[in-house]
Design a protein that fits this description.
Elements (H helix, E strand, L loop, with lengths): L2 H6 L4 H10 L9 E2 H8 L2 E4 L6 E2 L1 E4 L3 H4 L8 E4 L4 H9 L4 E4 L7 H9 L3 E4 L4 H10 L3 E2 L2
Parallel strand pairs: 4-5, 4-8, 5-6, 6-7
Antiparallel strand pairs: 1-3, 2-7
Amino acid sequence: MDLYLWKGALPNKTLFWGFLINQGILSNEFMVRLVDIQTLTGAALHCGEIENKTIEYGFGSDLMSDVLTLEDKTPLLITGLSNIQVIRTAEMADLSAILIVRNKQVTKEMVELAKENDIVLMSTSLSLFKVCGILYKHGLKSIF
């Protein structure tokens, strides 16, 4: 049974998942599929393979200097910035996926650099705040 669909069908998901984790029935190492992130946010996929990829953490920021301070975690980068520096920062921080918010345009140069570095690049019309809330609600963990 697909845990994501099962989780979505429960009336009080948070309490139920907490109970299962506390009882040792489920691990708290829950991962969210990138294909589900695309569906939940209505995101357009610009490049990268999302079918069999999962991610555990999310990080929302428009400050690329904050992204460079992340240690030992490789989150989905959720940002309102749409320039080549976002891809370069993701490359330096060893991130595998970026979600651009607020209907910002993704350039050809961004797509080419993301492809070269095997980085998934998606974009959505939703705000940073809304995307973070939706993904947190569906199991994506916060770094801090």
